[in-house]
Amino acid sequence: MKEFLAENYPDFVLEENNIKVITDVKEEYLSLRHGVAVRDISDSTFLILRGIDSFDYLNRISTGNIKELAVLHKTDTLFTNDKGRIIDKAAVVRITDYCFVLGGRGSSSRLKSWLERYITSENIAIEDMTGKYAIFELIGPQTESYMNLAFGEVLESLNEDLVIISEINEIKIYIAKFKGYNGNPKYWVFGDIAGAEVIARFLLEQKSFYDFNFVGEDAFNVYRIELGASIYPFEFKDMFTPLELKVMENVNLAKGKFLGQDRISKSETFNRTKREFTGVNFENKCECELPARIFDENNKDAGTLTSCAYSFSLTKQIGLAVIDKQVLAEPKPLFIRDTENNNQPLIITSLPFRK
User: Which CATH architecture group holds 44-128?
Assistant: First the structure.
Protein backbone atom coordinates (compact mmCIF):
# COMPACT_ATOMS: atom_id res chain seq x y z
CA MET A 1 0.00 0.00 0.00
CA LYS A 2 2.87 2.37 0.75
CA GLU A 3 4.22 1.77 -2.77
CA PHE A 4 0.80 2.62 -4.21
CA LEU A 5 0.67 5.86 -2.20
CA ALA A 6 4.26 6.78 -3.10
CA GLU A 7 3.48 6.26 -6.79
CA ASN A 8 0.19 8.15 -6.87
CA TYR A 9 0.49 10.53 -3.90
CA PRO A 10 4.21 11.25 -3.36
CA ASP A 11 3.54 13.87 -0.67
CA PHE A 12 1.59 11.59 1.68
CA VAL A 13 2.45 11.92 5.36
CA LEU A 14 2.94 8.82 7.50
CA GLU A 15 3.30 9.19 11.27
CA GLU A 16 3.78 6.16 13.52
CA ASN A 17 2.37 3.96 10.76
CA ASN A 18 -0.72 6.19 10.65
CA ILE A 19 -1.60 7.88 7.33
CA LYS A 20 -2.11 11.51 8.38
CA VAL A 21 -2.36 13.30 5.03
CA ILE A 22 -2.38 11.96 1.46
CA THR A 23 -2.81 15.01 -0.77
CA ASP A 24 -4.04 18.08 1.07
CA VAL A 25 -6.09 18.11 4.27
CA LYS A 26 -8.63 20.62 2.97
CA GLU A 27 -9.08 18.81 -0.38
CA GLU A 28 -9.57 15.53 1.45
CA TYR A 29 -12.08 17.16 3.80
CA LEU A 30 -14.09 18.46 0.84
CA SER A 31 -14.25 14.95 -0.64
CA LEU A 32 -15.56 13.66 2.68
CA ARG A 33 -18.21 16.37 2.71
CA HIS A 34 -19.17 16.41 -0.96
CA GLY A 35 -17.71 13.46 -2.86
CA VAL A 36 -16.18 10.01 -2.33
CA ALA A 37 -13.46 9.59 0.29
CA VAL A 38 -11.48 6.37 0.80
CA ARG A 39 -9.75 5.64 4.11
CA ASP A 40 -7.20 2.87 4.47
CA ILE A 41 -8.18 1.40 7.85
CA SER A 42 -6.19 -1.81 7.50
CA ASP A 43 -4.81 -1.36 11.02
CA SER A 44 -8.32 -1.77 12.44
CA THR A 45 -8.78 -4.65 14.86
CA PHE A 46 -9.50 -7.84 12.91
CA LEU A 47 -10.21 -10.91 15.03
CA ILE A 48 -11.50 -14.31 13.88
CA LEU A 49 -13.52 -16.36 16.36
CA ARG A 50 -13.96 -20.07 15.77
CA GLY A 51 -15.71 -22.77 17.78
CA ILE A 52 -19.28 -23.87 18.40
CA ASP A 53 -19.69 -21.50 21.36
CA SER A 54 -18.42 -18.35 19.61
CA PHE A 55 -21.75 -16.78 18.70
CA ASP A 56 -23.41 -17.48 22.03
CA TYR A 57 -20.34 -16.13 23.81
CA LEU A 58 -20.28 -12.90 21.79
CA ASN A 59 -23.97 -12.52 22.48
CA ARG A 60 -23.31 -12.69 26.24
CA ILE A 61 -20.33 -10.33 26.23
CA SER A 62 -21.57 -7.57 23.91
CA THR A 63 -24.69 -5.49 23.29
CA GLY A 64 -25.74 -6.72 19.83
CA ASN A 65 -27.87 -9.72 18.89
CA ILE A 66 -25.05 -12.00 17.71
CA LYS A 67 -26.55 -15.39 18.49
CA GLU A 68 -29.12 -15.18 15.69
CA LEU A 69 -26.78 -13.89 12.96
CA ALA A 70 -27.25 -15.76 9.69
CA VAL A 71 -24.37 -16.67 7.36
CA LEU A 72 -22.95 -13.61 5.55
CA HIS A 73 -24.88 -11.26 7.80
CA LYS A 74 -23.40 -8.65 10.12
CA THR A 75 -24.33 -6.41 13.02
CA ASP A 76 -22.71 -3.62 15.00
CA THR A 77 -22.11 -4.28 18.68
CA LEU A 78 -20.52 -2.64 21.69
CA PHE A 79 -18.23 -4.39 24.14
CA THR A 80 -18.89 -2.99 27.61
CA ASN A 81 -17.47 -3.71 31.05
CA ASP A 82 -19.55 -4.68 34.07
CA LYS A 83 -20.21 -0.98 34.74
CA GLY A 84 -21.69 -0.59 31.27
CA ARG A 85 -18.80 1.51 29.97
CA ILE A 86 -17.74 1.03 26.36
CA ILE A 87 -14.52 -0.88 25.68
CA ASP A 88 -14.88 -0.72 21.88
CA LYS A 89 -17.39 -0.81 19.06
CA ALA A 90 -17.14 -3.59 16.46
CA ALA A 91 -18.84 -5.08 13.43
CA VAL A 92 -19.42 -8.82 13.77
CA VAL A 93 -19.59 -10.64 10.41
CA ARG A 94 -20.70 -14.28 10.31
CA ILE A 95 -18.94 -16.15 7.50
CA THR A 96 -20.01 -19.78 8.09
CA ASP A 97 -19.29 -21.46 11.42
CA TYR A 98 -16.82 -18.69 12.32
CA CYS A 99 -16.98 -14.90 12.36
CA PHE A 100 -14.93 -11.76 11.90
CA VAL A 101 -14.88 -9.14 14.65
CA LEU A 102 -13.74 -5.79 13.22
CA GLY A 103 -13.09 -3.17 15.88
CA GLY A 104 -11.31 0.12 16.41
CA ARG A 105 -7.92 1.11 15.09
CA GLY A 106 -5.11 0.12 17.43
CA SER A 107 -7.32 -1.85 19.82
CA SER A 108 -6.57 -5.43 18.71
CA SER A 109 -4.49 -6.68 21.65
CA ARG A 110 -6.75 -4.90 24.12
CA LEU A 111 -9.96 -6.29 22.65
CA LYS A 112 -8.52 -9.80 22.22
CA SER A 113 -7.44 -9.84 25.87
CA TRP A 114 -10.86 -8.59 26.90
CA LEU A 115 -12.61 -11.35 24.97
CA GLU A 116 -10.29 -14.05 26.33
CA ARG A 117 -10.79 -12.82 29.88
CA TYR A 118 -14.28 -14.29 30.22
CA ILE A 119 -13.73 -17.59 28.39
CA THR A 120 -13.92 -20.52 30.81
CA SER A 121 -14.93 -23.89 29.39
CA GLU A 122 -16.32 -22.62 26.07
CA ASN A 123 -15.11 -24.08 22.78
CA ILE A 124 -13.68 -20.86 21.33
CA ALA A 125 -10.43 -19.96 19.55
CA ILE A 126 -9.54 -16.32 18.89
CA GLU A 127 -7.05 -15.44 16.15
CA ASP A 128 -5.70 -11.91 15.75
CA MET A 129 -5.55 -11.17 12.01
CA THR A 130 -5.02 -7.43 12.39
CA GLY A 131 -2.82 -6.15 9.57
CA LYS A 132 -3.38 -9.28 7.49
CA TYR A 133 -6.46 -7.86 5.79
CA ALA A 134 -6.66 -4.69 3.71
CA ILE A 135 -9.72 -2.68 4.72
CA PHE A 136 -10.94 0.37 2.81
CA GLU A 137 -13.75 2.55 4.11
CA LEU A 138 -15.66 4.61 1.53
CA ILE A 139 -17.49 7.68 2.82
CA GLY A 140 -19.28 10.70 1.37
CA PRO A 141 -22.55 11.68 -0.35
CA GLN A 142 -21.42 10.39 -3.77
CA THR A 143 -20.37 6.99 -2.41
CA GLU A 144 -23.62 5.13 -3.12
CA SER A 145 -23.58 6.20 -6.77
CA TYR A 146 -19.83 5.49 -7.08
CA MET A 147 -20.18 1.98 -5.64
CA ASN A 148 -23.04 1.14 -8.00
CA LEU A 149 -20.93 2.27 -10.95
CA ALA A 150 -17.83 0.40 -9.72
CA PHE A 151 -19.47 -2.91 -8.78
CA GLY A 152 -22.74 -2.88 -10.74
CA GLU A 153 -25.21 -5.70 -10.21
CA VAL A 154 -23.00 -7.27 -7.52
CA LEU A 155 -24.54 -4.76 -5.11
CA GLU A 156 -28.18 -5.29 -6.10
CA SER A 157 -28.99 -7.44 -3.05
CA LEU A 158 -26.70 -5.63 -0.59
CA ASN A 159 -28.22 -3.93 2.45
CA GLU A 160 -26.93 -2.91 5.87
CA ASP A 161 -27.44 -6.43 7.26
CA LEU A 162 -25.59 -8.38 4.56
CA VAL A 163 -22.00 -8.95 3.45
CA ILE A 164 -21.24 -9.86 -0.16
CA ILE A 165 -18.25 -11.88 -1.39
CA SER A 166 -16.91 -10.81 -4.78
CA GLU A 167 -13.63 -10.47 -6.72
CA ILE A 168 -11.38 -7.75 -8.09
CA ASN A 169 -8.98 -9.12 -10.68
CA GLU A 170 -9.19 -12.60 -9.10
CA ILE A 171 -8.62 -11.15 -5.61
CA LYS A 172 -11.35 -12.26 -3.19
CA ILE A 173 -13.04 -9.33 -1.46
CA TYR A 174 -15.85 -8.73 1.00
CA ILE A 175 -18.20 -5.76 0.61
CA ALA A 176 -20.27 -4.45 3.53
CA LYS A 177 -22.66 -1.51 3.74
CA PHE A 178 -23.23 0.53 6.90
CA LYS A 179 -25.16 3.53 8.08
CA GLY A 180 -22.64 6.34 7.59
CA TYR A 181 -21.47 9.07 9.92
CA ASN A 182 -23.98 11.60 8.57
CA GLY A 183 -26.81 9.31 7.48
CA ASN A 184 -25.43 8.62 4.00
CA PRO A 185 -24.34 5.00 3.47
CA LYS A 186 -20.70 4.07 3.91
CA TYR A 187 -19.01 0.91 2.61
CA TRP A 188 -16.15 -1.35 3.57
CA VAL A 189 -14.25 -3.21 0.89
CA PHE A 190 -11.77 -5.67 2.40
CA GLY A 191 -9.67 -8.70 1.57
CA ASP A 192 -6.30 -10.35 2.11
CA ILE A 193 -3.50 -7.81 2.61
CA ALA A 194 -1.62 -9.31 -0.36
CA GLY A 195 -4.30 -7.77 -2.59
CA ALA A 196 -4.21 -4.29 -1.01
CA GLU A 197 -2.68 -2.51 -4.00
CA VAL A 198 -4.95 -4.33 -6.46
CA ILE A 199 -8.01 -3.17 -4.51
CA ALA A 200 -6.68 0.38 -4.12
CA ARG A 201 -5.84 0.70 -7.83
CA PHE A 202 -9.27 -0.62 -8.80
CA LEU A 203 -11.00 1.93 -6.55
CA LEU A 204 -8.89 4.74 -8.04
CA GLU A 205 -9.58 3.61 -11.61
CA GLN A 206 -13.33 3.84 -11.01
CA LYS A 207 -13.22 7.50 -9.97
CA SER A 208 -14.78 8.67 -13.27
CA PHE A 209 -16.39 12.11 -12.77
CA TYR A 210 -16.65 11.80 -8.98
CA ASP A 211 -14.93 14.10 -6.49
CA PHE A 212 -12.75 11.17 -5.38
CA ASN A 213 -9.87 11.18 -2.93
CA PHE A 214 -7.94 8.85 -0.70
CA VAL A 215 -7.98 10.59 2.67
CA GLY A 216 -5.84 10.60 5.77
CA GLU A 217 -6.78 10.75 9.43
CA ASP A 218 -6.34 14.52 9.80
CA ALA A 219 -9.19 15.29 7.39
CA PHE A 220 -11.34 12.43 8.67
CA ASN A 221 -10.96 13.61 12.26
CA VAL A 222 -12.31 17.07 11.37
CA TYR A 223 -15.22 15.51 9.48
CA ARG A 224 -16.29 13.05 12.18
CA ILE A 225 -15.97 15.63 15.00
CA GLU A 226 -18.23 18.03 13.09
CA LEU A 227 -20.80 15.23 12.88
CA GLY A 228 -20.39 14.21 16.52
CA ALA A 229 -19.17 10.67 15.74
CA SER A 230 -17.51 8.70 18.54
CA ILE A 231 -14.60 6.35 17.79
CA TYR A 232 -11.88 4.36 19.56
CA PRO A 233 -9.57 5.43 21.20
CA PHE A 234 -11.04 8.88 21.80
CA GLU A 235 -14.57 8.29 23.09
CA PHE A 236 -14.65 4.47 23.25
CA LYS A 237 -12.14 3.86 26.02
CA ASP A 238 -13.99 2.38 29.04
CA MET A 239 -14.83 5.84 30.35
CA PHE A 240 -18.41 6.35 29.15
CA THR A 241 -21.65 4.43 28.71
CA PRO A 242 -23.75 4.02 25.53
CA LEU A 243 -26.39 6.37 26.94
CA GLU A 244 -23.82 9.04 27.74
CA LEU A 245 -22.32 8.83 24.23
CA LYS A 246 -25.77 8.59 22.58
CA VAL A 247 -25.09 5.26 20.85
CA MET A 248 -27.99 3.27 22.29
CA GLU A 249 -28.96 2.20 18.76
CA ASN A 250 -26.16 -0.37 19.13
CA VAL A 251 -27.67 -1.84 22.30
CA ASN A 252 -30.30 -4.60 22.22
CA LEU A 253 -31.80 -4.70 25.72
CA ALA A 254 -34.45 -7.23 24.69
CA LYS A 255 -32.09 -10.03 23.63
CA GLY A 256 -31.27 -11.35 27.10
CA LYS A 257 -28.41 -11.07 29.56
CA PHE A 258 -25.06 -9.54 28.56
CA LEU A 259 -22.11 -8.01 30.38
CA GLY A 260 -23.00 -4.52 31.60
CA GLN A 261 -26.71 -4.93 30.86
CA ASP A 262 -27.93 -4.18 34.39
CA ARG A 263 -26.16 -0.82 34.54
CA ILE A 264 -27.15 0.14 30.99
CA SER A 265 -30.77 -0.95 31.45
CA LYS A 266 -31.21 0.99 34.70
CA SER A 267 -29.65 4.09 33.15
CA GLU A 268 -31.94 3.81 30.12
CA THR A 269 -35.10 3.17 32.14
CA PHE A 270 -34.59 5.90 34.71
CA ASN A 271 -32.40 8.23 32.64
CA ARG A 272 -29.78 7.98 35.36
CA THR A 273 -26.82 9.58 33.68
CA LYS A 274 -24.87 12.40 35.22
CA ARG A 275 -23.03 13.25 32.00
CA GLU A 276 -23.94 14.08 28.41
CA PHE A 277 -22.09 13.98 25.09
CA THR A 278 -21.89 17.40 23.44
CA GLY A 279 -19.85 19.69 21.23
CA VAL A 280 -17.55 22.51 22.33
CA ASN A 281 -16.16 25.53 20.52
CA PHE A 282 -12.73 26.93 21.37
CA GLU A 283 -12.21 30.67 21.63
CA ASN A 284 -8.59 30.20 20.54
CA LYS A 285 -6.69 27.67 18.46
CA CYS A 286 -4.46 25.63 20.75
CA GLU A 287 -2.77 22.29 21.36
CA CYS A 288 -3.92 19.98 24.14
CA GLU A 289 -3.34 16.42 25.26
CA LEU A 290 -6.37 14.14 25.07
CA PRO A 291 -8.38 13.25 27.03
CA ALA A 292 -8.33 16.67 28.71
CA ARG A 293 -9.96 17.64 31.97
CA ILE A 294 -12.63 20.34 31.66
CA PHE A 295 -13.05 22.60 34.70
CA ASP A 296 -14.95 25.72 35.72
CA GLU A 297 -13.71 29.08 37.01
CA ASN A 298 -13.38 27.57 40.51
CA ASN A 299 -11.24 24.71 39.15
CA LYS A 300 -14.07 22.24 39.79
CA ASP A 301 -14.32 19.24 37.45
CA ALA A 302 -16.96 19.76 34.75
CA GLY A 303 -16.26 17.00 32.23
CA THR A 304 -13.80 15.54 29.75
CA LEU A 305 -12.66 16.75 26.32
CA THR A 306 -12.27 13.63 24.17
CA SER A 307 -11.50 15.00 20.66
CA CYS A 308 -10.59 18.27 18.99
CA ALA A 309 -9.64 19.61 15.55
CA TYR A 310 -9.67 22.80 13.47
CA SER A 311 -12.83 23.03 11.34
CA PHE A 312 -12.37 24.47 7.84
CA SER A 313 -16.06 25.17 7.35
CA LEU A 314 -16.53 26.80 10.76
CA THR A 315 -13.08 28.47 10.73
CA LYS A 316 -12.43 27.64 14.38
CA GLN A 317 -11.26 24.86 16.63
CA ILE A 318 -13.99 22.50 17.80
CA GLY A 319 -14.20 19.44 19.99
CA LEU A 320 -16.26 16.63 21.47
CA ALA A 321 -16.79 16.38 25.20
CA VAL A 322 -18.73 14.59 27.90
CA ILE A 323 -20.05 17.23 30.32
CA ASP A 324 -21.69 17.05 33.73
CA LYS A 325 -25.45 17.57 33.31
CA GLN A 326 -25.54 20.09 36.15
CA VAL A 327 -23.08 22.22 34.23
CA LEU A 328 -25.24 21.97 31.11
CA ALA A 329 -28.32 22.99 33.13
CA GLU A 330 -26.57 26.01 34.63
CA PRO A 331 -24.05 27.24 32.01
CA LYS A 332 -20.85 28.71 33.37
CA PRO A 333 -17.39 29.53 31.97
CA LEU A 334 -15.44 26.36 31.19
CA PHE A 335 -11.78 25.77 30.44
CA ILE A 336 -9.15 23.21 29.54
CA ARG A 337 -5.40 23.50 30.06
CA ASP A 338 -3.33 23.49 26.85
CA THR A 339 0.14 22.01 26.36
CA GLU A 340 1.71 25.31 27.43
CA ASN A 341 -0.27 25.16 30.70
CA ASN A 342 -2.56 28.05 29.73
CA ASN A 343 -6.30 28.01 30.42
CA GLN A 344 -8.31 27.92 27.19
CA PRO A 345 -12.01 28.91 27.26
CA LEU A 346 -14.65 26.55 25.85
CA ILE A 347 -18.24 27.20 24.78
CA ILE A 348 -20.75 24.34 24.82
CA THR A 349 -22.70 23.77 21.60
CA SER A 350 -25.10 21.13 20.25
CA LEU A 351 -24.24 18.30 17.87
CA PRO A 352 -23.76 18.06 14.97
CA PHE A 353 -21.88 21.32 14.46
CA ARG A 354 -23.57 23.78 12.11
CA LYS A 355 -22.56 27.07 10.55
Answer: 2-Layer Sandwich (3.30)
